[in-house]
């Protein structure tokens, strides 16, 4: 009796769906700078146990437990930065998305639809840029303990929306009645398994009508000293009922 062949034949697999989509992600950078003065006390050790007092700048300090205690004013500069790479659909922070910035992305101006190949899907961002920015800014606002704040500056220096190409293929293993999705990164060439296609994410069939408009959620935010590069736009789904 011959053992069963563990390797299925090629004709046992069927390609049932494929798509070329542009997947969005946000790159947000928030920075803060604080310049301030605060009062503090320094404990300074003396040279030996025989020392009883120390004169510093015409002021005499008594030695206690081998130390003198000096009152000072500290002049401080505190700088903070938070860099976020957020998935445009889930909103999750994924630092691995930083690798796409080194691939010389193209800055899109004008009508984006002219640059999207026919039949490709431009995935609309589901995560709100305003929420991502608020979260980044909240990390920059520190409770500064200071007697005098000389400079306090918090800003978002970058709020860019990027699109990366992804090829998705949905296969059916006919003899087993199972389905699986294979995704190919259009930039890096990496191959991996996918969870769902864009059609499944929407829960409806894709229409062919693409309307483009400025991302109002991002355009409505004003950042002094910074800029928002809106590199993509919303895609509106036709929800009209069939008469």
What would you say this structure looks like, in words?
- There is one protein chain.
- This protein has two domains: 10-29 and 80-229, no CATH class; 37-74, no CATH class.
- The protein contains three helices and nine strands; from the N terminus they run E-E-E-E-E-H-E-E-E-H-H-E.
- It has helices spanning 129-140, 198-202, 216-219; strands at 13-45, 53-56, 59-62, 67-87, 121-122, 148-173, 178-185, 191-194, 228-229.
- The strands form two sheets. Strands 1, 4, 5, 6, 7, 8 and 9 form a seven-stranded mixed sheet that branches. A two-stranded antiparallel ribbon has the order 2-3.
- The longest helix has 12 residues, at 129-140.
Tell me the Rg in angstroms: 30 Å
Count of β-strands: 9
Tell me the major beta sheet.
Answer: 7 strands, mixed
Tell me the structural class: mainly beta
**Run of helices and strands:** EEEEEHEEEHHE
The backbone outline, from C-alpha atoms, is elongated
Mean pLDDT: 77
**Count of distinct structural domains:** 2
Give the uncertain stretches in residue-range form.
203-243
- Quote the distance from N terminus to C terminus: 62 Å
β-sheet strand percentage: 35-45%
Q: What percentage of residues falls in helices of 4 or more residues?
A: under 10%
Total count of helical runs of at least 4 residues? 3
Topology:
Elements: E1 13-45, E2 53-56, E3 59-62, E4 67-87, E5 121-122, H1 129-140, E6 148-173, E7 178-185, E8 191-194, H2 198-202, H3 216-219, E9 228-229
